[in-house]
RNA sequence: GCGGGCGUGGCGGAACUGGUAGACGCAACGGACUUAAAAUCCGUCGGGCGCAAGCCCAUGCCGGUUCAAUUCCGGCCGCCCGCACCA
């Protein structure tokens, strides 16, 4: 009797059973090998989106496969719950950030649970919870003690209307994204994490992360940006109104081109420039102009090289009578190197552009192979290739690399400077003038300076009674919160009102999961040492640099301070692609949601209510602004979690972008129906569980068994390599075969029926990581009321069934396929060759010619060369 | 500008270390069942020629290596991503 598969009831049924049995709760067990799989935790923005569904499905498949393979799996979930959107909501909707955030968490937790994820919810963390950020504050203080944190003045983007610091991304065309005010560069005292302390290690350890995408490692490598060069001092020629013995320190990676120098250039923010600007109004104006334009990315791209001649002259390091003009230039960055450079226009394009504008000399000092030193000159394109030094005194004749070394040796010997390694990576500024973040746990005292909040007073909790009417930081406006007594001297002092960058929160949550409920310390070493590192981390590639680099840094800092044993938090990383969808616009050019349009049979589209013409746009990444989004909640309500999950895994490889289509969802939905019928239609005719195995397998039963074991091998391999679309294809192949066999042959033969039962049970197991609910239901329908499918062991392929006695050998003549032969496995090459040549099609292709050569690859292919 | 990736049917994509190109799915078309529709099932499905056996062309383009190239090498063309005044 055929039953219908009821998605909603079945899915809720199994979710309840898993929850009641605490099936996915993880505990340390020294006897079992652990496997820690983690997906990037979501920001509680309101509802889950398709990106979350994909991310968590991928992680869940890994968790479930590993669990069935016998690993002790930890698969936790939490909330990256601090951040600006909560404060915006507070301003716009008059709802408290905490309220807004916790409400969202509640909604989204429900949505995630409806996905049927194999998560250990007992370890759930939320970064905005004082029980979480208390420990973050403790970590900060440990880092402070260890010298990994410091406070310094630094340049920030300041919005003078909102009275707040803006991140670079929030500055658009030099204006604040919210207020529209011209952004200023301001110097502000900020907290910094000394990430540069680990620059070398963060770089070299990338080589050990062999289960990370090459792309991410390269991006991190470029971000850290190690370069070898030299720092050296240029003495300033005495000026009437300058103190003597002044000098400018520059950084260069091309000390071999020092004899081609035309000028020195200082950053507009260089201390010496500030000094000069005091007496030079024009210079001050120039600096102000640079600072205004400097923040905009568009400006950087198009900005012309601009310089201001200070009138100062610097003496060339190797020739004190050779005077070089000193400019202030808009393209010199204060926070890289020393904030000052020497310009060698012949061998640096940017310097060349600058020099052409200010009419300075261009002297080539590297001679390309085959050029004549007497005639070689540089036009509009600087020469940056290899060659031999010339017009360079003691460097003459040396290749670039040798000349660099020689120049550095010379500089060092003369006491002018030394070779240095320079990193592009800068220390991590973590201060934010925001309310909804983790308070930085220090107190500023007039007499004692910066005093950490004593451990017994942690956490420093956010005050709840704050207002968001005034621009700026609500913590700073709060009437009482910041006024405290100094913990050291007891005098009135001021609490730090900055909060941490939210990237700090997400840089150690993987460690907190190990001891999620421990009230006393951030992590328990025993637990952390058991679980860490994370074996498989899954998330979006947009975090390839910042988040992953910060997490790697914090792990090192935690190791230094004794909290962890590992320095690399994630040994395996997988970055998934984005979800895309067609976009739609109405006649007025306004974006439309997919459900607002209706497709016509001819491919065009109209508005579903007005019937107006709709323009179908490109397929692009789902985004709220373009309204090309589909709500996962609606999909799960209509088709179930299994359908949504399988769609995420089918077709597109997980690292690539995925196009969401309605027809694709229908296809998956149909597959679920087929799976159910496959079992339900035949189950009553199958041999009972535990029936004796047939003594012999006939051809039809062997066919089923071979396919079953082939599928086990292929699907297992596909899962191992993250080829989830391949795993789907292989399970579908097995399904197709079982369906066909089940319809035709099962009733007539005991062996076939037995093989079919085996096949169906295996199929249920193979799809279980992807379709956990229907798999469990199939398993139960197959008679396993005693043991849940998730508690069974992952099937093993029988090697004997993976090899066929006969193989198909392709036969080519001159590289073109002419025939295929069915031959016994491992037939001797001679026999294969003979069979190939005997084939009528091969004979015809040869057309009487005798073969010059025959290449035989046993069990695969024969190529007859005529 | 620097770094990286990718180009395969109408579409998403498969092809492990070079060895039968197009698995699996979507769409489309034809058929069965039905009063009809839905659902389901069967079949066809890169292009061309042929009644057929079969033949020719085909993995962005041009060339190379090889018995054999989607795969390796060189040069173009196109698309995508990351970083970017980093000295």
Describe the structure.
The protein is α+β, with helices and mostly antiparallel strands. The strands form 11 sheets. Strands 28, 29, 30, 31, 32 and 33 form a 6-stranded mixed sheet that branches. 35% of the residues lie in helices and 21% in strands. It contains 27 helices and 37 strands. The model is unreliable at 295-301 (pLDDT under 50). Helix 1 packs across helix 24 (772-781) and helix 21 (699-720) runs antiparallel to helix 22 (724-744). The two termini are 62 Å apart. The radius of gyration is 34 Å and the shape is globular. The chain binds one RNA strand of 87 nucleotides through helix 7, strand 11, helix 10, strand 15 and helix 11.
- Helix segment tally: 27
Secondary-structure-based class equals: alpha+beta
**Spans where pLDDT lies below 50 across 5 or more residues:** 295-301
Give Rg in angstroms: 34 Å
Tally of extended strands?
A: 37
Give the topology.
Layout: H1 7-20, E1 34-39, H2 50-68, E2 72-74, E3 78-79, H3 84-93, H4 97-114, E4 125-126, H5 130-145, E5 149-159, E6 164-166, E7 171-172, E8 175-176, E9 184-193, H6 199-204, H7 214-224, E10 226-235, E11 247-252, E12 263-266, H8 271-277, H9 281-293, H10 297-302, E13 307-316, E14 319-329, E15 340-343, H11 349-358, E16 366-367, E17 388-389, H12 400-413, E18 417-423, E19 428-429, E20 431-432, E21 442-445, E22 449-452, H13 474-477, E23 483-485, E24 492-495, E25 499-500, H14 502-505, H15 509-512, H16 525-531, E26 536-540, H17 546-560, E27 573-576, E28 579-585, E29 591-592, E30 597-599, E31 605-607, E32 613-621, H18 632-639, H19 641-649, E33 658-659, H20 662-680, H21 699-720, H22 724-744, H23 750-767, H24 772-781, H25 799-802, E34 806-813, E35 816-824, H26 829-838, H27 840-846, E36 853-857, E37 861-865
Parallel strand pairs: 1-2, 1-26, 3-4, 12-14, 26-27, 28-33, 34-37
Antiparallel strand pairs: 5-6, 5-9, 7-8, 9-19, 10-11, 10-18, 12-15, 13-14, 16-17, 20-25, 21-22, 21-24, 23-24, 28-29, 28-32, 30-31, 31-32, 34-35, 36-37
The structure holds one RNA strand of 87 nucleotides.
